[in-house]
Amino acid sequence: MSTDRFLPKTVSVRMYRNGEVTPKGALGGLGDCFLLAFPRPDTPPYYVLIDCGLFQGSTDTSKRLQHTMDLIGKATGEHLDAVVLTHQHYDHLSGFKLAWSTFEKFTVDEVWLAWTEDPSDPLAKQLRSRRAQQVDALRHIGQTLRLHLTKARAALDPRQLKRDETFGAQLEALLSFSDPVNDGKNSMPLAEVMQAVGQRGQVRYFKPGDTFVLGDGMTRGYVLGPPRNLANLRRSDPSADGSEVYLNSPLRALVHTAAPDEATPAGEENQREAELPFGRHRLERRIDHLYASYGDPERRWRRIDTDWYQAAGPLALQLDGDTNNTSLVLAFEIPDSGAVLLFPGDAQVGNWLSWDSVQFTVPISTGQRTVTAVDLLRQTMLYKVGHHGSHNATLRERGLERMTHPDLVAMIPVDGKFAQQTKHWEMPYGDLYARLLTRTSGRVLRADQDVDLSKIAFPGQVTQHRDFVEYRLPGGPNPPSSKRRTRRDSTK
């Protein structure tokens, strides 16, 4: 099968592996990049590109994303009918940043963004401003911790040093989802990446309840998220019921206590006075023997100088989840069969829960019909698994268990080895992955490994190429059925 033009005769989805290009094949990358093709009778398909990125810290990131963008250009003739940017995370947008020289050659008709990116929306503006403040503050905390470790390394107890170094690395890993501090020459912030991509075509901002018809004149799109309810936006994890940590006031306290400012008067006494919460006249006599004991090198393991940094961890986790909850969630309903392709970005719990309050009214020949999230989930035939298969990005009873289509297929953009061995993240999450295999009868397509197509039957056609995994949905007059034999094309 040619890796050039992508001209399927049925609705098709390519999941680019974003992997290392080797003679033996490609290793899957930890990042989203999906090209959807909706056939049209007399013209090339209607192409929709949903995200393109790779997690920071992956090897040869720029080279791999440049290769992927080259492939997309060849597949589409360098024309995209729509580019979807689901949310501001590096593993979804960095391809536009690091392969911009290729992408800027494309013609783009439309760019689809969530309402949270609309500069004219007051609530969106407020969210973006506060998010930027929190990212800056957390970066300041990380930088302060690194400075402290550099200066005080010799005086720290080895156990404390290891703990603080581990925490600093974890904080940077979480923040790298939002935006790395510096990519060298490619230091454009992700917000500016979105703006730059938006200048390539007509921008459309979507909110829950919006519907639209694609350029093939038949396929209907439904917008399920992100919610406009702040409680849902801030609810990232099932165990944090009702939590509203998002951009909350504890951050400000951390910023103020993070470290002395460079403008602090020089000298130990001036430094101490600047740190007092009240005037020197209120200061009791210092207990010198306590200070001497606290500074005793033999008892340094008991010191808590850097314990306050640990409070930044939950804030960084919450920020990461809240950004995921701003994901633009799209469902595409294919005419005739009614099958649905569900692309939730990295939506987490609050985003998913909000879908039950969304209803759609669409025209039909006899008038109009009402469509709900329950309807769309029941009709879902292809599910792009959220957040690389994380535990809190696919709901159970109000999510996967509602996907009852007999031919359900799941696609997971994941590099399990990188996630687990390098970042110590369980992706895909074991219990979720097991349930996906059960619900789909084994029809789970991953970016980092191939399926044995001699044992697993897919309706339609699966192609496992070294650069991508492609699924062409069944078409024609007969209804889809997994009992039919899978057409296989495992070009390497």
Q: Low-confidence runs (pLDDT<50, min 5 residues)?
A: 181-186, 240-279, 300-306, 311-317, 476-492
Distance between the termini: 9 Å
> What structural category characterises the helix and strand content?
alpha/beta
Query: What percent of residues adopt helix (DSSP H or I)?
Result: 25-40%
Q: What is the topology, as strand order, of the major beta sheet?
A: 8-7-6-5-4-1-19-18-20
| Outline type | globular
Could you report the average pLDDT, rounded to the nearest whole number?
79
Find the count of extended strands (DSSP E, 2+ residues): 20
* Share of β-strand residues: 15-25%
Cα radius of gyration in angstroms: 25 Å
Report the biggest beta sheet as strand number plus sense, adding barrel if it closes: 9 strands, mixed
Keywords: Hydrolase
Biased composition (Basic residues): 482-492
GO molecular function: hydrolase activity
InterPro entries: Competence_DNA_uptake, Metallo-B-lactamas, RibonucZ/Hydroxyglut_hydro
What does this structure look like?
The protein has 492 residues and is an alpha/beta fold. It has a domain at 130-183 and 246-315. Helices cover 32% and strands 19% of the residues. The protein is built from 15 helices and 20 strands. The protein has helices at 61-76, 90-98, 100-103, 122-152, 158-178, 190-198, 230-233, 250-257, 268-274, 288-294, 312-324, 349-354, 373-378, 416-422, 430-439; strands at residues 12-16, 21-22, 25-26, 33-38, 46-52, 79-84, 107-114, 202-206, 211-213, 220-225, 329-333, 340-343, 359-364, 367-372, 380-384, 409-412, 444-446, 461-464, 468-472, 487-489. It has a nine-stranded mixed beta sheet. It has a seven-stranded mixed beta sheet with strand order 9-10-11-12-15-16-17. It has a two-stranded antiparallel ribbon with strand order 2-3. Strand 13 (359-364) and strand 14 (367-372) form a beta hairpin. Helix 2 packs across helix 6 (190-198). The radius of gyration is 25 Å and the shape is globular. The termini are close together. Mean pLDDT is 79; it is low at 181-186, 240-279, 300-306, 311-317 and 476-492. Residues 482-492 have a biased composition (Basic residues). This is MBL fold metallo-hydrolase. Keywords: Hydrolase. Residues 470-492 are annotated as: Disordered. GO terms for molecular function: hydrolase activity.
